[in-house]
Amino acid sequence: MCLLCIVQAYSQSFTISGTIIDGESNEPLIGAGILVKGAGRGTITNIDGKYSLEVKRGETLVFSFVGYQNQEVAITNQRTLNIALRVSEANNLNEVVITGRGSAKRITLTGAVSGIQANELRRVPTSSLQNTLSGKLPGFFSQQRSGQPGKDASDFFIRGVSSLNEDGNKPLIMVDDVEYSYEQLSQINVNEIESISILKDASTTAIYGIKGANGVLVVKTRRGEEGKPVIHVRAEAGGQIPVRKPNFLDSYNTALLVNEARTNDGLTKMFTQHDLELFKDGSDPYGHPNVNWYDEVFKKSAMQSNINVDVSGGTKRLKYFVSGGYFSQGGLVRNFAKADDDVNTGYFYRRFDYRTNLDFTVTDNLTMRLDFSSRFMNINEPSSLNATGEIYNFTAMHPYSAPVLNPDGSYAYLSDVDGYGPTLNARLANEGYTRTRRNDNNILYGVNWKMDWLTKGLSANARIAYSTIDEVFRKVNRGKDAYPTYHYDPTTDQYNINPNRKYAYSQYALTAGTNQAVKNLDVQASINYARVFNGIHDVSATLLYSRQSRTVEKNPDDTGEKDSRKLSGSYRYRRLQI
Predict the structure, then answer these.
(1) What is the rounded distance in angstroms from the CA atom of residue 312 to the CA atom of residue 193?
(2) What is the pLDDT averaged over residues 518-536?
(3) Residue 278 neighbours by CB distance under 10 Å
(4) Which of these, 143, 205, 217, lies nearest to 179 by C-alpha position?
(5) Are 460 and 451 in contact (CB under 8 A)?
(6) Would you say 94 and 106 are in contact if contact means Cβ atoms under 8 Å apart?
(7) Banded pLDDT at 197 (limits 50, 70, 90)
(8) What one-character-per-residue DSSP string does 281-326 give?
(9) What's the average model confidence in pLDDT over 473-490?
(10) Strand 509-533 to strand 494-497: parallel, antiparallel, or no bridges (unpaired)?
(11) DSSP collapsed to 3 states, 205-257
């Protein structure tokens, strides 16, 4: 009888009530969910964040709200249960998203904007910023067309492609409100970045006018925070390997297919049965070579390293962020140059970068910023030669065309193709290199004046940015007919000179010049207004004047001077949900 009373008492239901609030602001959460775990019963909070629900002892309540971490509580004898929910780091609705010339909290944002914080990007060890964004932002489409060190940055589009003209699909790129090109964006060190946003619809890109028609990628760099100096050192090293490697036919199977093709065309077979047997058993490596040119030219892996050091901190009046980095990336193509040539014909990429961001609080209403950044880039590649394209071109080279080297170590030529050109390894070893050096410098000065004394939410902003791009090249090369190559005949043990009759090595020819020399001046002034009335009327407006001057001293795709001026404005109203 007593046991029955205990069971009945334990199973009796009762009403539990309470309030659910935001754990930081202590504001009530409207529409938060309360669910009895495993029972399918539940309720939501009212306009004051309050709730009540019938429960039983021993049940578990799950408290949840969009953008917040769930919280579970076991029911014992509570009649009142108040809960403070914390914002989820994975879906932070209070996260500040950069929106054109300003910013907004994600929870009050109505335009089509996607954002990402830089700590998610630093986990991806790639050389260019575009590659780190792949698959991380909705509406962001990227395509990597090359794997060459220093030239492997992805082309990207926002919300797809709208034109057959490739340049007509490129989005506008803004870094700290300064326009950047694809090349400049690819050279930015990810360690310098605080956040990235993409603006995808007319309401968010309107301030940029026609330039924002294909969307806008907005990058904000890191700033210092008040406090003691904080030093971060990050060093990475790793290897690069091909994701998928092609499997090429050997000489025997290639010869079989060549004979079959000629038979189908009514022509005489190119290879006899004896030739096929020699290809198959490999007993005549010089008269009947079997070369996998992919394996001979490409390494299995290449090294990559990245070192970053940054210091940040400051006082109430001055905050600073200083960063320096070095990035090195090797190529998968082997370096065939001789040590005594003092010529590096391989692929590699080196980058040095430096940034200083200073913020001055002159008065409570007046702040200033001064930013410096420099990037030094060095790209090396074989002169006038695309190694990957040559390997995939069957008409230019076959697995049985020539051995990698002749028995005496001399270079061979392709005796079965038109032109009798040298083998690919001979070209990589003897035809020199092209080295490109580029230096980008940027300086930005800005001032912001809060004018709450005139009306709350009013501010004025002005900034001037100056940047230079200097790119030079050094080319050391000689043609494919400027050095001797031979065909070795194993039946006579004779070396036959290439029909071009070149018996000695010619000297390298040295050329140098300027690829780009560009100067940009960007001046902006704006008046901004942002205010919430009565807790529900969210109003914001911007009036912007900008002037861009571009002086091109040398650029194959752009010449002369350009000067553009623009006056634009935007307005937004949103009624907040209560």
Answers:
(1) 13
(2) 88
(3) 22
(4) 217
(5) yes
(6) yes
(7) confident
(8) H-S-TTTS----HHHHHB-S-EEEEEEEEEEEEE-SSEEEEEEEEE
(9) 89
(10) unpaired
(11) HHHHHHHHCCCEEEEEECCCCCEEEEEEEEEEEEEECCCCCCCCCCHHHHHHH
